[in-house]
Each structure stands twice: as C-alpha cells, then as structure tokens.
Amino acid sequence: MSQRQILQDGYVERVVHEGLKYVNITWKHPVRWDVAVTGSWDNWQTREALQLQTPPHVYGIFKALKTSLYHYRYIVGGYHTHAPEFSWALDDSGCPYNILDLRDFIPEMVATLGDTECPPSPPWSYDNMPFNDK
C-alpha cells in the first residue's frame, strides 16, 4: 500500500469520525464591496472571501465544519458586520456576531422512550364474544 493511499484512507476515516457537516454561509444583501467571513472555527484567524452564487447579490461559501457551536462575522467593505436574518448575539463589547449551531439535537423525550409502556386498548375495542370454532 502506498503512502498516498494510507493518507487518503486516514483522511476518509477522520472525516467520518470527526462528524463534519457541510454548510453554505451566505450574505444576501446588496454590496459594492467584496464580502468575506471570519469565525471561531479557526479562532478568528482567517478571512475567507464569499463568491457570488446568485446574481445580483447572494454571496456564499461552502465549508466543512465539525459538529459544534460557532460564532462568525461578515466583513463587508473592511467592516465587521452580521446578517440580521440569521441567529445572532452581542459580544462583551456590544458588537453583533452570527451564530451557527451544528450540534446534533436529540430531544430529551427520545431518551425516555424505552421506559414508556404502550397505552391499553380502549374497552370498546373488545366485543367480549368467544371465538367460534368452525
């Protein structure tokens, strides 16, 4: 087996085990400048340019991210901003950021389903007539 094959298999295994999710981060507002995004997925280290996806003004970027909760900001015309149509909050300085929640949601009720019993049949569903032996 070649080193390349080992690396490819290792990558596939890592992708499966890390629980990556693919997301499209979009900006849907008219702009005269380039649009970029930065976020907590890499500790705010990089700015990634969004590409025009649907003219005249829908920009986006596809990302593969681990299952987690992320904060991110758009950079439009050199200024940090947020998209108010998506989940957002304010940081300690009062600056808005968007929230991307990729965590798997498992309702609490699912955990208790094994402990429940089926409800009894309603009394009217029985006719109390003996079976006929024919």
TrEMBL record:
Ranges where the AMP-activated protein kinase glycogen-binding domain occurs: 23-103
Alphabetical list of SUPFAM superfamilies matching this protein: E set domains (SSF81296)
Protein name: AMP-activated protein kinase glycogen-binding domain-containing protein
Organism ancestry: Eukaryota, Viridiplantae, Streptophyta, Embryophyta, Tracheophyta
Transmembrane segments: none
GO cellular component: chloroplast
InterPro entries: AMPK1_CBM, Ig-like_fold, Ig_E-set, KINB
